[in-house]
Target: LysR-family transcriptional regulator
Amino acid sequence: MEESVEAVSLRQLRALVSVSDAASFTGAAEQLGMSQPSVSHLIRRLEAEVGQTLVVRGRDIQLTRQGQAIADVARRAILAIDSALRECRDMTSLKAGSVNVAVGHVSAATLLPQILHRFQEKHPDIELTVVDCMVEQIRGKLLSHEADIGLGAVVASDDSKILVENLWDSEVWLFLRDDHPLAGRAAVDARLLTELPCIQLNPNAPAWLAISRRLVAHNIYPRVEQRVILVSTAVGMIQAGMGVAMMPSIAAVHMPRGIKGIPLREPGLAWPISVVRLANYPLSPAAQAFAAVVRNTIRTFKARQDA
Model:
């Protein structure tokens, strides 16, 4: 019996439902876009599989009691299947769908506004939810499926569960008030960080740890007086004259008036910008579309900085 059930095809069930609805093989054939003999063949195959007559042939076509029972169940199943297939096709064509994006705080404050604008303009039918978090929390958001894709200063590692696509190593600039004594310089020697009151963003983030190691390798130990998590907090402290802050160059476009960014040199420092995903789990079409917009946006930022 199990073999017979497995051998029943969706086409056979569609034919039975159409015969039930049209009360004729001719009408069913028109509904299905098939020839009448093809519909008759499908019904005969279905009857052979279940071992009994389901359609009473004659001048008036009607279904047997068991045939009608199968047709009723099949109709509901076909509607559900067709609905799921339409939804899947709409997602593939980006006419529908959703994506949850885990974004580190620095990327959320600098890159995300322009990315969201471009994404919503290009894909207005896709629902995008931002999962705002610290960059070191992105991995957990992906593993728990709270987020489909991540964006932030994630450093590539040997973590087999996470795939990191580095898009750009943005320069690290020193942000200060435009009335600061260093504001007129084209670049600032990183050694001066030992003399300046520094505001440090999320010092435990992997990107900052890498930057700190590079500074230490050059015997540079910044005079950190404030440690904060949010870019907005650092900006407020700079405005209040409490110090200067190292941030990725991409932050410059979102800085308020009165604050400017100057490249750090000797050594130059890099801030990674990466798209992150689960290594062995496919991205949905919506998540793929988001990643594509991120790549294009990053290329725009790089072109502006290189110009």
Q: What stands out?
A: Residues 96-166+278-306 form a domain with the D-Maltodextrin-Binding Protein; domain 2 fold (CATH 3.40.190.10). The mean pLDDT is 90. DSSP finds eleven helices and twelve strands in the chain. The radius of gyration is 31 Å.
